[in-house]
């Protein structure tokens, strides 16, 4: 089978990070049965360095959920996501 994923690491940014790094992976899985057959399940995970506090992790979680909702809006709606 073919795996569809991308992994990336953020080690520096402007403004500066308050933690050392984060390693994120976006994976796409085909849905092969049920009502959503022919669709794609998208999973986005992140692993933070041990110096990231709970606030950083929760903020990133919120931003990932928002970005995935925007993506779903574009793909399902066929147009630009609305803010």
What topology does this entry show?
Elements: E1 4-10, E2 22-30, E3 40-48, H1 54-77
Antiparallel strand pairs: 1-2, 2-3
Structure, described:
About 30% of the residues lie in helices and about 30% in strands. It is built from 1 helix and 3 strands. With about 80 residues, it is α+β, with helices and mostly antiparallel strands. It has one helix at about 55-75, and strands spanning about 5-10, 20-30, 40-50. The longest helix has 24 residues, at about 55-75. The radius of gyration is 15 Å and the shape is elongated. The protein has a 3-stranded antiparallel β-sheet with strand order 1-2-3, with helices on one face. The mean pLDDT is about 90.
Question: Outline of this structure?
Answer:
With 83 residues, the protein is an alpha+beta fold.
The radius of gyration is 15 Å
- Percentage of residues in DSSP E strands: 25-35%
How many DSSP-defined strands? 3
Individual helix count: 1
Q: Which sheet architecture does the biggest sheet show? A: 3 strands, antiparallel
- State the end-to-end CA separation: 36 Å
Biggest sheet, strands in spatial order?
1-2-3
- The secondary-structure class comes to alpha+beta
Helical percent range? 25-40%
What is the mean predicted local confidence, pLDDT? 90
| Mass-distribution shape | elongated
Run of helices and strands:
EEEH
Low-pLDDT sequence parts: none
């Amino acid at each position: 089978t073919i795996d569809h994923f991308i992994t990336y690491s953020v080690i520096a940014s402007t403004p500066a990070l308050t933690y050392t790094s984060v390693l994120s992976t976006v994976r796409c899985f085909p849905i092969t049965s049920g009502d959503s057959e022919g669709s794609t399940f998208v999973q986005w995970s992140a692993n933070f360095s041990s110096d990231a506090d709970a606030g950083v992790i929760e903020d990133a979680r919120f931003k990932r959920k928002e970005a995935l909702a925007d993506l779903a809006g574009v793909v399902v709606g066929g147009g630009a996501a609305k803010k």
